[in-house]
Design goal:
This is Molybdenum ABC transporter ATP-binding protein. By secondary structure, the chain is of the alpha+beta class. The protein has helices at 36-44, 92-101, 112-119, 134-146, 164-180, 192-198, 216-220, 329-335; strands spanning 2-10, 13-21, 25-29, 51-56, 59-63, 68-69, 77-80, 152-156, 185-189, 201-206, 209-214, 234-244, 249-254, 257-262, 271-277, 281-284, 295-306, 311-318, 321-328, 342-347. It has 2 domains: 2-227, Rossmann fold, CATH 3.40.50.300; 234-356, OB fold (Dihydrolipoamide Acetyltransferase, E2P) (Beta Barrel), CATH 2.40.50.100. It is built from 8 helices and 20 strands.
């Protein structure tokens, strides 16, 4: 269990954040200036807060009431930065060995061969960082952090410096890290697609305070929170891969509802998360015919959030899960949408980006 309670003032900014999270990836999520980096710096020991307590299980790194303030090098942390920060004069093998060199004597260590296999970097061992892609460098950086026998891994927007192709390459490795390595991970992100795919727990921050905590589906699917702004709003559905079709589509089963997406490299029967952005959802009060969209999901309007501008957010409960639709207030009035009314959500298959399913 990861436990964090920190209070600190930096000029006009006040951080007052407290949360506990189970094993897995805990994502700090919010817009720029919400306090994500300040909080992770406090966990890393790069910032000594005015008061607080930080612990990973029974490993207490900070407890101001008890006078415990471990320096950064004594916190047993693995840190993954936006850039790999590998030693350019060392091979991949030597960079990994450097991480293992920091493991305390007698500490339980990960097997180097298993980590190399987990991250798919066996063919890179004799190469130097200058010959690696951005995604390959990050995979080596993850391996180096794991081999230092950390009690906690910190990842500060580790995909922010990568292009879309490199992000798609490395996301599955973070998923494997979450599922196969028994080390808690504190991950900073403001990208909803990363949060939807990776998070075991989401801690939403705004103005230095925790405004929500829960699963990705709970936090990203609540329009009352929207910690990263209205354009990040979207639902997260849990599904299983049902079939792969010869026309290049993958069929999912989400609570008995068939969803069609562009081909996914996942075996049949595998569970999967899918993020559907609110601005990609259209609504109809009756089931439409003769349209190109393949995904038509019946549901009931749960509530409507009207903004100050022309837009509004409609929350729809369906058998597949909760969906959000970003539409105009004019459309809501013309369709006479109110809570409790039957409605259909329409989602184009090609609207779901590859990084939103995993």
């Amino acid at each position: 269990m990861l436990s964090v309670a920190v209070r600190h003032r930096l000029g006009d900014f006040a951080l007052d954040a407290e949360f506990t999270a189970p094993p897995g990836i805990t994502v700090l999520f919010g817009r720029s200036g919400s306090g994500k980096t300040t909080l992770i710096n406090a966990v890393a020991g790069l910032l000594m807060p005015d008061s607080g307590r930080i612990a990973a299980g029974d490993w207490v790194m900070l407890d101001t009431a008890q006078g415990i303030r471990l320096r950064p090098h004594r916190r047993r942390l693995g840190y993954i930065f936006q850039e790999g920060r590998l030693f350019p004069h060392l091979t991949v093998r030597q960079n990994l060995a450097y991480g293992a060199w920091f493991a305390p004597r007698g500490a339980a260590r990960e097997d180097t061969g298993r980590i190399v296999d987990l991250l798919g970097i066996g063919h890179l061992l004799d190469r130097r960082p200058g010959g690696l892609s951005g995604g390959e460098k990050q995979r080596v950086a993850i391996g180096r952090a794991l081999l230092s026998a950390p009690r906690l891994i910190l990842a500060d927007e580790p995909l922010a410096a990568l292009d879309a192709a490199r992000k798609a390459e490395i996301l599955p490795y973070f998923e494997r890290l979450r599922d196969e390595v028994n080390i808690p991970i504190l991950y900073v992100s403001h990208a909803a697609s990363e949060v939807a795919r990776l998070a075991t727990t989401v801690v939403a921050l705004d103005a230095g305070r925790v405004v929500a905590q829960g699963s990705a589906a709970q936090v990203l699917g609540d329009p009352a929170i929207l910690p990263a702004g209205i354009r990040q709003a979207g639902a997260v559905l849990s599904a299983t891969v049902a079939a792969h079709h010869p026309d290049g589509l993958t069929q999912l089963d989400a609570g008995g509802v068939a969803l069609f997406l562009p081909a996914l490299a996942r075996e049949i029967g595998r569970p999967i998360r899918v993020r559907i952005a609110a601005h990609d959802v259209m609504l109809a009060v009756s089931r439409p015919d003769g349209i190109s969209a393949l995904n038509i999901v019946p549901g009931i309007v749960q509530r409507i959030h009207r903004g100050e501008g022309p837009g509004a957010m409609v929350v729809l409960d369906t058998a597949a899960g909760r969906l959000l639709a970003r539409v105009t207030q004019r459309s809501i009035d013309a369709m006479q949408l109110v809570a409790g009314r039957n409605c259909h959500a329409i989602v184009k298959s090609v609207a779901v980006a590859p990084e939103d399913a995993g």
